[in-house]
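Re: [help] complex structure
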Amino acid sequence: MSNCSTADAGSLESLRQDDYELLARLAQRYYIDEQTQEQVAREFGLSRQKAQRLLKRARQTGVVAIHIEAPTWLRLDLEGELRETFGLKEAVVSVAQAGPRADREAVAQRAARYLERHLGEGSVVAVGHGRTAGAIARFFRPVERLGATFVSAMGGSPGADAPTNPNEICRALAQRCGGWAESLYAPAYVEDAEVRSQLLAQTAVGRTLAVAAGADMALVGIGGVDDDCTMVRSGCLSREEVAWLRSQGAVGDVLGHYVDVEGRPLASPHQQRLVALPVEHLRRVGTVVAVASEPEKPAAILGILRSGVVDVLVVDETNARAVLRTAGPRPRVAIAAGRPAAADRAQGPAHRGPYQPRPEGTVATAPRTRRGTPPGPPQEVRTCP
Amino acid sequence: MSNCSTADAGSLESLRQDDYELLARLAQRYYIDEQTQEQVAREFGLSRQKAQRLLKRARQTGVVAIHIEAPTWLRLDLEGELRETFGLKEAVVSVAQAGPRADREAVAQRAARYLERHLGEGSVVAVGHGRTAGAIARFFRPVERLGATFVSAMGGSPGADAPTNPNEICRALAQRCGGWAESLYAPAYVEDAEVRSQLLAQTAVGRTLAVAAGADMALVGIGGVDDDCTMVRSGCLSREEVAWLRSQGAVGDVLGHYVDVEGRPLASPHQQRLVALPVEHLRRVGTVVAVASEPEKPAAILGILRSGVVDVLVVDETNARAVLRTAGPRPRVAIAAGRPAAADRAQGPAHRGPYQPRPEGTVATAPRTRRGTPPGPPQEVRTCP
DNA sequence: ACTACCAGTGAGCAATTGCTCAACGGCCGA
DNA sequence: TCGGCCGTTGAGCAATTGCTCACTGGTAGT
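Output below.
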């Protein structure tokens, strides 16, 4: 998909001169002179339907070329391909920058713009961790003060890498818009499943995760499995643990939920020690926005996209190209034959991937908080005037 | 007017980056991905109306560029200008050829195409004289046999230049489509007004002119006033007579009705000796198609177009450019202030010029013959299987 | 501070467009 | 020559689009 309408069926060359002339004339009168189909039909002595069919043919054959004069820093074509390939609700690709750091900033900036456009009064956003996610707040500048709630969807990290912590990201975002932040007072990974159970039983923890489960939107980073990934840098997992995950086929994670390159969830012992919003709950969130920008991320992004948990992807150009290259030209067929085309016009807001279809009515931990009805008084709120 | 949608209001450069991005995105989703306005509006969190306004702005500013990939031998821009400038129903411009002869053939060819597209079973065409008109028949090749009637709208010429004679042209056209030809047995110019009256009183003559007056379409040549014009060559008028007309301000004629460069009809003694369909009757004809192609014709074409008698002009590129250059960029204002814009969308088939508005209900010599109801048995018919 | 103005907004409606479907006609094979 | 098939046609209807209008919120000028 490019920013130019393409000629799929038939080509300019396949037209006879007479047809070509007629098509061009009709198109000129309709598209350029802005007459109605009925008028041009009458003018050319055709029925309206015939004129309509000819006009359609004019577009198909390329007699009519519609070109979008997009800003040079937009990558509408890549965005379209990502959307199509992975059935995303939206994809935002930031143009390639000089280095990884600049790429991260660019992605963060675009993510901030996305949030600004899509958050409303009373929105609730579940937030994950990550360097890219952590960079968003600096660019986040909604026009008006926004009564939005940012809630941690994942435990914190023991390491000192503060700005990549969900709690910290929530606080920063809330501050920028005069909203609320609700922290999750728990580490991302605890000792064992039992501690986890106890922790989840705590009102403070359980409640926060319930609020996160009822969010309108989720903002998550896509994590990798390299030795320098966020999990390792922040001290959540050891290098060895990540290496083990890698050996099991893991390519990346969202909120600590690892998947393989095909997007299949990875059952691992770490899962039992994770304090984060479960995937099933994440899937219930209306719009899951994933950000990714580091190098060495294509496999992670590909796996996560294939898992179908993501609705909106914000990514840098390099990763976008790499992901699409790896996914191949027509991966929809390869991954899940018969999946309805993403371009399905009558489609609702679903856009869910093929794996782990959302368990209808299985869990409804928290009442779905909608715009205009802010959640009950969060335990930990900060209002920033 | 070109074959590319133009950016009138505002420009690409005047847009802020954010607006530009939004416009481009919307346009991409709407024009390229073919979503509905409602869908893109929902996708971007806008009201449908707002999306519509933005899309309109996208076209105005040139974010959306619609280009018609016209055949190289089409001059849609010139045709559009002619249509606009002179309020024509249609204009056909043939691409410039190597010489006058080739130009004439090209115009004839395009005129033939026009006739083929617009004539139907039972059509009645009033026909004038001229070299270009005479060249049409050779290219006239309707797909099916066509029960059309071609009727002379003007007397013949004494000279031997047969193929430019109305009767001859009618016969040739009728032959090509298996229709009928109705001849006018009279010279174009007679001795004096009295002879003319006697001639018109003849059933054969009066009847033919009546049929011509009831035609659906007229096919006329635009004549010049140079020493080598059709009138002179065919022997209808002497070189001196034409010189005299020229001295009176005449620039050209249609069916022997001369006009000055402003399109005003020229009262001349020759008028009293002319055996042809009167201008008032010609104006009553639904579609007056004028063909012109010789060099030295721009002034003639300009005058005739300004007279408003012509609905459709078929002309060569060189003359077209010359006429437009002479007419100036906004001649509508100069000629007749307040004349309704030709682009008036709700406009009916009128398209009449400002001079000599059609005298409603003054003359109705012959019942208006419509498609499907062929005229009564013409006196002189030739059927060609 | 008040008021007039004006650009921008969305509801509601009319016009336009796109789609489906039955009917038609031409073409090929029997 | 006949019958079936496929592509084309236009009617009718549903969806989409464009437009008008009353209203709002912000702005600039008393």
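The longest strand of chain B covers residues 287-292.
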